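Demo today. Your pick:
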Amino acid sequence: MNLVLPLLNVLLMAWLGYGMFRRQPDSWKRVFWPALGLKLVAGVCLGWLYLDHYGAGDTISFWQDGIRLSGNLLDRPLDTLVFYWDESLTPDLYQQFSHQGPRSLFFVKISGLLALAGGGQYGIMSAWLSFASFVASWKLYVRLCRFFPEMTTANALIILFFPSVVFWSSGLIKESLGLAALYLMMAAVLSMIRRQPLSALEIILLPISLWVGWNLKYYWLGIFLPVAIPAVIVVWMVSRRNSLLRYDLLLWLLFFLGCVFVATHLHPNFYASRILEVICQSNLEFTRLSEPSQLVTYDDLRPEAISVLMNVPAAIVAGLFRPFVWEAFHWLSWMASLENLLILLLLIQALPALRNVIHSKHRVLVVAGLTYALLLTAFLALSTPNFGTLSRYRIGALPVLLLLCLSPSTPLGRWLSSRRWFG
């Protein structure tokens, strides 16, 4: 039984993967298996990093909590179903788990189902999450290529193959499902902007993505939705009344501010009276738990608007480019610093294209994407000053910024648009 159940999982995953592969156009098939293989290998590497290198970490505790929960599903099914509905009704079960925060406990419940299906095998649980993350990545990649065919190569490099994005969205961690949910929402937003009908499956998956994304990474969605919803509304308005085109950025800004106001009432940590305190308190907690060499330090960061705003530029620099090469101190930080150097070079070559944004037919999308990427990066860097944790959390913003850096209006983007490496 120990071998049969994992084998059935592998066969099911292979069957689902082959079914997806058969439905792809021939021009995209050559990138499908390398991208899926890389995702699965990344999940294995993440497990090795925590299990063998660190010996501790979220992925290990999620695995252990998932096994405990799957055991309860078999031994105490009725009590455990109640726990799934409301954990406060079963305090004896609740106390069994090392993860007791709302977002982590939500992921523990998912891990429990995966452990039940995979016989508690870490590799199977990790592979299913990597596979789910790949499916969402592929969905966004296909949607981007259909709407922006000149960016086929850039889309693949960023969505399917960019190292930290692939690595930190694979395996048994919250970011795997968090980024999958975000990608599915991005794909749906692109369809809405292009006034393409959503498929029946997308209509089902969209509310599920909102639910999963909000429960795992509410701060990603708390910035993405106020940016994306106005973009959809404004593009629709302009398509119906072309005279509004000259005011599209102003309209987007007004709707964006309105959505921000609504967002500040959706989660306690977003309340206007609390958000600055939450940022500073989180910063303080990470500072206490981290080595000084692994920290971003800010100038007199206090829960006051002026203090936070003064530190935003440093936070954006830290979130995108640190650790710098000269700050690296072991092989992991060396890899991160080299990738950060690449990001810096990509951004530098893209900067001259900013002056042409106002004339772009996609200027609302560009401004919305840039706003989302920079706001989320600043928020994460201020509240999560540990280099290692920040490199994981920022994957919610990084793909959007990199896609903008490789748009056909940039020198490297123009060069890549003439290369059909992936389609």
